[in-house]
Amino acid sequence: MMSKCSIVPSPNEVQLFHSLNGIQRLAETRRFKAWFLDQFGVLHDGKQPYPGAIATLEKLAVSGAKMVVISNSSRRASVTMEKMKNLGFDPSLFVGAITSGELTHQYLQSDRGAISLEGLGLQVVENVEEAEFILAHGTEALGQPSGSAHPMKLEDLEKILELCATKRIPMVVANPDFVTVEARALRVMPGTLATKYEELGGEVRWMGKPGKIIYEEAMKMAGVDPTDAVAVGDSLHHDIKGANAAGVESAFISCGIHAAELGLNSFGEVADISLVQALASKFDARPSYVLPAFIW
Ligand SMILES: [Mg+2]
């Protein structure tokens, strides 16, 4: 069922979104030629697909929709599709994937202006003094010149960032997420480090949602205009604000990363509309549709 909800937070600001139980009605209107799908919190939780997600993708494909995975994962697109396949998703249902890691790889390959690199022969250095930029793609370890990773606490990584900020070393963030849902637990992600770095006065190049670049690449991949696409995601800051900035309509999945804030305890539980509205306003995000999960 589709119903229109109108909530008036202030006399000047009327916000509208449609509440849906699943995507069937919307998919069957064929209103959107392309669907841009977030993976973590929408299709799977990092360990397993959400109930109904695989069947929903199959039905959406039958409706003729072109589907692109858009993800803030620091993995390359091909690795992401391989992981999706291992989780039970059929890669042939998708036109492809655009990931933060893929965008970062391309950026480091093509942009040798501010950052001087020889191709992608990246050399990890021992001292901050020798570094030309910081590549943030994790939060639990520091890369070593040997190629290994030295486990490190977040507080200690932040101390290194303080030193980097005084040296004005730019950061490229290859996964702008703040946290991720992993089997229902929240884990800190590189976006948190990048925010800290900006607070310290550091310069950050955000290579993913909510940046427009990931939506533009997805539109290119699917061959559609913004008006022909809808982006589905569970993060108001990343997925919904990103879609807003790119001029793409969006569907907010409430049982993902914001589930606890919305008082949701079980998969598929329907969120209170006024709570969704209040949370969306807090993030300055405007979803076109709101639904509990990526279900048909
Ligand atoms: Mg997500």
TrEMBL record:
Any single Gene Ontology cellular-component annotation: chloroplast
InterPro entries xrefs: HAD-like_sf, HAD-SF_hydro_IIA, HAD-SF_hydro_IIA_hyp3, HAD_sf
Membrane-spanning residues: none
Cited CDD domains: HAD_like
Source taxon at top rank: Eukaryota
GO molecular function: phosphatase activity
A matching Pfam family: Hydrolase_like
The protein, known as: Glycerol-3-phosphate phosphatase
Species of the source: Punica granatum (Pomegranate)
Origin organism lineage: Eukaryota, Viridiplantae, Streptophyta, Embryophyta, Tracheophyta
